[in-house]
Structures are given as structure tokens and as C-alpha cells.
Amino acid sequence: MIQLFFLLLLCCGCYRVPDRLDPKVSYQLQDRHLEGLSSAFPPLSPEEKASDWGREVIIARGFAAELDLYRAVSTFKRALFLVPNPERKLEIEYDILFCYFLGKRYEDAIEAFEKSDLRAVDKTFPAYRDLLLILYECYGEMCDCEKQQCILEWMESAFPETAEKLSLSQAIRCGDLDTISCFASHFHGPSYLSELLDDYYENKKSVPKAQIFNALCPGAGYFYIGQYKSATTALLLNSLFIVAAYEFFHHGHTAGGIITLGFEAGWYFGGIYGAGEEAKFYNERLYDRYATTLLNQHNLFPVLMLEHTF
After folding, report:
1. Residue 9 in this model has a pLDDT that exceeds 60
2. What are the domain boundaries of the chain?
């Protein structure tokens, strides 16, 4: 019996699912996220409002305020062709970049930035902090880690508190529990990070346990993570194949018994791996719920850290 147990453990090891998080934390932008924010740029003068480019900007910002981003970008681009003032040109280029970012068109946002004069701005640019936040998020979404790290270094130099907040945000969104724990240790007393970790560890399922349970009794791993229908199906199918194989061997149909055992092996080992995958998926969805709530409550998404709007 002990030998059988260790054999099952060995089988579980061969089909081991990595017990790490790959969360899918995201946000849904609402009008209220931009309410109460003001523009980083001085208002248009009466003369500017009366100009062709000024009227286009007014219309574009109206579209943008309603999150009609496609029309906003088109109108901002018309204004860009008409504006004579270099400073106002920078503002319009930023507004176009901002629209792409809000629309989650990250590749377009990066392309707009790299083709604009915004590449040369510094801390004197009124929306410089927000620009760095936007670029950090865009490069991260495009998996350009080198440029994202460069943006973070600029942020650390100019806005260290925001840079630390970004690092924490990234750790939470990536499910980096060790880094989150390090951040939590900096707080004196209970913190929302400690609550996140405590809630997650208290309610998560063990991937190895799910696999071992399913190895000992097909379906038990699924039962452990609360998938009762899958547990019942796994138990019935494995039992059916085992009984069928026994009947084949018992009646001298060796070939049929071997073939049936082959099918049973597929169901059995597949069930072990599947139970581990489902436990991992359960943990990721559990973490997603906790992390999404925390990120929204404490404004840890980069879009919620912005200080200005159109």
C-alpha cells in the first residue's frame, strides 16, 4: 500500500502544475474616473477660441469628455494641422496620446508619442507626471520591459512617491506575492496589503493537494476545489473504464483489456493534471477579485493616478 502511495506521488510529480499566479486584473474606465480633474494646460484665450484650430480643440475636448475617443482623436488631428503655436501643438499632441491611452490603444499611443515633440519635454511640461504614467502603462501593455523600466527610472527621479506606487501596482497586478509582502512589511500595523495576502492565503486551494487527491481517488481533486459535477463525472468515467478493463481480462479478452486500460490511463493522468490546472485557475480568479477591488479602492491603476484630464 505504501509503495502504491509513493507511486501515485511520483505520477503527480510527473504531471505537476506550477503553483504560481498569472492574474488577469483589469479596469473598466467610467466617466466618473475623470470627474473632478482639471486640465493641466491654460485655457484658450478668446482669440484662440475664435481661430479655426481653437474651435477644433473645443469640439475635440467635448468628444473626449464624453469618452467618444474616436471622434476626439480625429478632431484633435485636424487642430494639429492648423495650430501655429508650438506650445499649443504639444498640448494637442498630448491630448491625442491621452485619447489613445484611455481607449486602450497602447500601440497607437506609443506610435503617437514617438512621432511627436513630446519626446523632448521635461518636468516643466504641465502634464509631465501624467505623461510618464501613460507611457509606463503603454510600454508595459506592449511587453516592452526595457522602455517601461526606463520610464520608471525617470519617474523615480522626478516623482519618487508615484514611482513607488507604480512598483506596488505592478506587483499586485502581476500577482508577485513576495514583493507585495515586502511592501506590506513597511507598514506599521495592519494594512490593506496584509489583508489582501491574508484573505488570499486563507481561501486559496493547494495545487499539489488537488493533484494528490485526484491521484488517490479520481474526482477527489475536483471535489476539493468545489467542482462537484466534474468530480462526479471523473469518478464515473474512471470507474467505468476500470470495470470494463477488468471484465475484458476476466473473460480472456487481453487485447481489449489493454486497450481499455490505455484509455483509462489517459483519463486518470489527465484528471491529475486537470485538477491541478483547475486549482490554479481557482486561485487566479480568487486573487483577481481581491486585487481588482484593492486596486480600485486605493487608486493603484495608473489611469486612476492621473491628476489631469482634457
Report:
1. no
2. 190-303
